[in-house]
Design brief:
By secondary structure, this protein is an alpha+beta fold. Helix content is about 25%, strand content about 25%. It has 16 helices and 34 strands. The strands form ten sheets. Strands 3, 4, 5, 6, 11 and 12 form a six-stranded antiparallel β-sheet that branches. It has a five-stranded mixed β-sheet with strand order 14-25-16-24-17, with helices on one face. Strands 15-18-21-22-23 form a five-stranded mixed β-sheet, with no helix packed on it. The chain is elongated.
């Protein structure tokens, strides 16, 4: 992702921090800087000049001999453009300049016997436009000698940042600025809206309905009327171009600006093209044709989430809009969409259609569901400012089932145990809060308790943080992986160890010698069964409730085996099993190496009808192997 350093400075004060320090700190924190582009270098030695004299070339009908004033001297140059005239303000490449189109360096040359010490440039040669019919003639009044970069406002530094799939929060300038605020302990200044707006699920001018709430849990929208679609102002075009996007018109450019600023994709519909002024979010289309904004015909499947009006589909949800509702120069009224879509569904749809848009790239990684309304208002206010529109309230917001904020416990003494170095508690709290986490300190905390357990509220823009170890990783990457101490020697204890494997072999052979048959049962069982014996350990991705928990005893497996045999009238059983059992130290702790108990156990089962015996089962745990 391309990030503008000037853009970042709107949200965080980086004054006094060198570029090298910024890039190295981001890289160490996990946001690798893959490239740096200093815009001013692209047009180095290319300036604004005035043509003070023009004469016909003595030996070539299509060439002119010109003299240009660079502000400090007058230079002779041969020019082949048909539109060059004395008195013009032009772009002049001095000797040593590298022309972007073609990447060739300007030197002093003779053209048909006349000395030429530079080049008057066209837009195409400067990679500013496609016009190559003649030189680029600028408005009068620009001081000769002004650098082209300065004139164009291209004095920015562009960072190419490699974003890993687990960091969707970093796919925006605010996300990168948030990490820098945590690294350098600086204040993060978030963009603001001018006032509070009424939010409602109903609107007099439009209707929004979510049918497929699984794939679209939230849909927000703002109605803006009486807009004027036109070219964007220079600062907006430059911001988008710095981030690798091309300017289209002021409405679309604003939606892209907010996407790059906040990480929330937006889409503008022409409200007058929506039948019944309705938006219906649903799936279930089968083999229906739909033409997207890239003029490609797509065949919809039942799984494809579609944004529809009262009669037809108008956009592929979270991927791309349709031609039948796009904003054009004739558009006056707009419905601005800001939604949250199921990442799995968007990923499948984008892959199925072979589309990778800026919107789908973010939706399929997970956006901030709590940011839809703010992003919509932010863009709507910019549209009112730059397109002369007016917001017609209220803001529409359909949010049927609210997402709960995740809370994770963090043991302070666990941090140094994992990292090998200590981070002061106060600094841990500061880092987490700067990253947007909520930190809840116990009411009786005195400030010197290393056994403290913090309750951390994970913001919804960080779906990758699920466990205690994830929080420790956040602290490590901000405080500095380079602070992890180097270990120059490793101590190995030479105390005599018990060979548990040898003990298992002994028991296995002994029990077989007594006429018992070895069985092997499933190490997974139901939570109800496991909790009868000890505190169970549950699985995150269980195949079903019957196999959702690690076994806490071998006896349930032995009883299940006996039942299967009894059902086929096999009642004379002599069985044993040697296997692992698992449990937790207490029910409140998170799973870690310190809280997980793993033991080797032996179970024995004797069953039969001889001498009026029924069955007998017992279990011996790891003590026998020690």
């Amino acid at each position: 992702m391309k990030v503008s350093l000037n853009w970042l400075k709107k949200y965080i004060n980086l004054e006094g921090i060198e570029l090298e320090k910024i890039t190295s700190s981001l890289t160490i924190s996990g946001l690798e800087i893959e490239g740096i582009e200093e815009q001013a270098k692209k047009y180095e030695n290319i300036i604004i000049a005035n043509v003070v004299k023009k004469e016909k070339h003595p030996s070539a009908d299509k060439l002119s001999v010109c003299v240009v004033n660079t502000g400090s001297e007058e230079i002779q140059v041969v020019c082949g453009a048909p539109n060059v005239e004395a008195g013009q303000t032009v772009v002049f490449a001095k000797i040593g300049a590298v022309i972007p189109a073609g990447n060739f360096q300007i030197g002093e040359v003779k053209l048909r016997g006349v000395q030429s010490k530079g080049m008057i440039c066209s837009k195409k040669e400067l990679e500013i436009g496609e016009d190559h019919s003649g030189i680029w003639v600028l408005p009068d009044g620009i001081a000769p000698g002004t650098g082209l970069s300065e004139y164009l406002g291209l004095i920015d530094t562009i960072l190419e940042v490699g974003i890993t799939p687990n960091r969707p929060d970093a796919l925006s300038h605010i996300g990168i600025a948030r990490d820098l605020a945590a690294i350098f302990n600086l204040e993060l200044k978030l963009p603001a809206i001018s006032r509070m707006y009424e939010v409602s699920s109903e609107h007099n001018e439009a209707k929004v309905e979510i049918i497929d709430a699984i794939n679209c849990p939230r849909y927000s929208a703002v109605i803006i009327k009486n807009c004027k679609v036109k070219e964007s102002p220079a600062y907006l075009r430059q911001s988008l171009e710095a981030a690798g996007m091309r300017s289209i018109n002021n409405i679309v450019d604003i939606t892209n600006f907010v996407l790059l600023e906040l990480g929330q994709p937006l889409h503008a519909f022409d409200l007058d093209k929506l039948q019944n002024s309705s938006i219906i979010v649903k799936s279930g289309f089968n083999q229906t044709e739909f033409i997207t904004l890239d003029s490609q015909k797509r065949i919809l499947t039942p799984e494809t989430l579609m944004i529809c009006d009262g009669e037809k589909p108008v956009a592929v949800g979270g991927v791309m809009g349709g031609e039948n509702s796009e904003v054009t120069s004739e558009t006056k009224n707009i419905l601005l969409e800001s939604a949250y879509f199921n990442p799995v569904n968007i990923r499948k749809t984008a892959k199925n259609f072979g589309i990778s848009s800026e919107a789908s790239y973010r939706f399929e990684r997970g956006t901030n569901i709590e940011n839809t309304v703010f992003s919509a208002i932010r863009a709507a206010e910019m549209i009112c400012e730059l397109a002369g529109g007016e917001i017609v309230g209220p803001v529409i917001d359909i949010y049927p089932v609210k997402y709960d904020q995740r809370r994770v416990n963090l043991r302070f003494n666990r941090i140094s145990h994992i990292l090998g170095y200590e981070i002061p508690l106060k600094q841990c709290v500061t880092i987490l809060r700067n990253l947007g986490f909520g930190v809840n300190l116990p009411g009786n905390f005195k400030g010197d308790d290393n056994n403290i357990e913090l309750e951390i509220d994970v913001p919804l823009f960080r779906p990758d943080v699920e466990r205690e170890i994830d929080l420790i990783e956040e602290l490590a990457r901000i405080y500095g992986y380079d602070k992890i101490p180097e270990i120059y020697n490793v101590q190995v204890s030479l105390d005599k160890k018990i060979d548990t494997e040898k003990s298992e072999v002994f028991f296995r052979n002994s029990l077989k010698g007594l006429g018992l048959n070895e069985i092997m049962t499933n190490s997974l069982t139901s939570y109800e069964v496991a909790s009868l014996v000890n505190i169970p350990v549950t699985l995150m991705n269980a195949q079903g409730p019957e196999m959702s928990t690690l076994r806490t005893s071998l006896i349930p497996g032995a009883l299940s085996t006996a039942l299967i045999n009894f059902n086929v009238r096999e009642k004379d059983l002599r069985l044993f099993e040697i296997g692992k059992i698992f449990s937790k130290k207490d029910s409140k702790s998170n799973i870690s190496f310190d809280t997980l108990i793993e033991e080797t156990a032996v179970s024995v089962m004797l069953a039969g009808n001889r001498n009026n015996k029924t069955w007998y089962s017992d279990e011996v745990k790891q003590d026998i192997f020690d």
